[in-house]
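To illustrate the input format used throughout this study, we show a single complete record. The first block contains the structure-token representation of the backbone; no residue identities are included at this stage. The design step must infer an amino acid for every position from geometry alone.
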């Protein structure tokens, strides 16, 4: 676990400790269930207030996208392009003013990108396809700034927007060769895939939240 993950996890544990030992009056309690539309897909969210300034929350989102059109780039053509986006989050909010908040926490990221590459002009030495799978780090810290409230102080419904980033590191790349290829071509394709994946170490976060306070 890297330094950013340790800092995020420590903050969450401290705030979870406050849930158990820091509540003194019913006015500080609050629980809400919400729906969210995120950059990982649509999902659900549960928010627990510690007081008027601090909340903890957990949520889950998932989205599957398939791009059916082939993409040709030089000597390679990709097809069966598919992205399975998904995340389970655990975080904490600091509502530092009535309409703005800062949030941090950890994401269990089970996103995955898959695609097949075949030669644009196959021949006797190079024919078939190579199936690639790209996966980010499983545990990813996130930081966001939000507008609105995750859980209303006095009303039943609240709406909020969060913008931020998640650090997911360099993607792990696996591939399966189906056919016959020269090693030089496989190496070049792998290098191109790895080079492209380096641009996605940081994943943007956009969350639209609608929550309904239970009590």
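Output of the design step:
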């Amino acid at each position: 676990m890297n330094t950013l993950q340790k800092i995020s996890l420590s903050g969450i544990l401290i705030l979870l400790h406050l849930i158990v030992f820091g509540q003194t009056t019913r006015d500080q309690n609050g629980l809400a269930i919400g729906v969210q539309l995120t950059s990982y897909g649509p999902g659900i969210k549960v928010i627990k207030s510690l007081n008027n300034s601090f909340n903890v929350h957990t949520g889950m989102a998932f989205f599957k996208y398939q791009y059916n059109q082939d993409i040709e780039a030089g000597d390679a053509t990709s097809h069966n392009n598919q992205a399975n986006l998904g995340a389970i989050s655990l975080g904490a909010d600091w509502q530092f003013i009535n309409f703005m908040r800062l949030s941090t926490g950890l994401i269990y990221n089970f996103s995955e990108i898959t695609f097949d590459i075949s030669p644009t002009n196959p021949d006797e030495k190079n024919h078939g396809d190579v199936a690639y799978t790209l996966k980010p780090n499983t545990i990813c810290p996130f930081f966001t700034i939000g507008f609105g409230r995750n859980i209303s102080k006095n009303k039943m419904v609240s709406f909020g927007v969060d913008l931020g980033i998640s650090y997911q590191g360099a993607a792990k790349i696996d591939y399966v060769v189906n056919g016959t290829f020269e090693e030089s071509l496989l190496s070049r394709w792998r290098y191109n895939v790895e080079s492209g994946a380096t641009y996605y170490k940081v994943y943007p976060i956009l969350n639209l939240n609608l929550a309904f306070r239970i009590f």
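Structural context for interpreting the output: DSSP finds two helices and twelve strands in the chain. The chain has one domain: 3-213.
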